[in-house]
Automatic annotation (TrEMBL):
UniProt xrefs under PROSITE patterns: GLOBIN_FAM_2
Coiled coil (residue ranges): none
Key words, A-Z: Heme, Iron, Metal-binding, Transport
Origin organism lineage: Bacteria, Pseudomonadati, Pseudomonadota, Betaproteobacteria, Burkholderiales
GO MF, one example: oxygen binding
Range of residues in the leader sequence: none
GO terms classed as biological process: oxygen transport
Xref: Pfam families: Bac_globin
Protein name, entry field: Globin
Binding site for heme: H105
Co-factor requirement: heme
Amino acid sequence: MSMVCNTLACFAIADAFDHSEINEVPQYQKEFPMTTTLYQRLGGADGIARLVDDIIATHLANPLVKTRFEKITDMAHIKKLSCEFLTTGSGGPQTYTGQGMLAAHKGMNISEQEFLVVVDDIFVALNKNGIDEDSKKDVLAILYSLKDQIIRV
Ligand code: HEM
């Protein structure tokens, strides 16, 4: 009898416990039931190309950083490298062939504010392209991890 009572008590406790929080499935896994790479969640090669176009257009329209990007002489090359960078960094099938972040930004004296503005512009592009919240957090973590190789180097 006491065994039955214990079992019933366990069921009662289990029922009373709210599982919704620990069982919360990230948004991207609801959309893509299998595990997906960040590369897939950014829309693959086409999605990343659209993102890079929008990121550069946003920089060129932003008074806080536009002069930095207006100076670029070979924009097609920088866009190609940016696509490669995003592809490699998000687990996609392409190898980045450009310089490291330290070498690429050395001597530019990029400020903390400019770094933040560039990150904000990237978020404008991510939002415009309907990228989900979890993937945006993944991108933010990658960008933040690079700050010491970019700011005032
Ligand atoms: C937030 C993280 C950033 C990432 C991931 C990033 C990524 C890159 C990449 C992949 C390149 C091409 C490298 C190469 O030429 O081999 C590049 C170049 C460049 N970046 Fe960044 N960047 C970041 C932040 C910034 C900031 C904050 C600025 C200035 C406000 C900036 C200004 C530039 C400029 C002007 C170039 C082109 C240099 C040239 O003409 O060769 N970047 N960046």
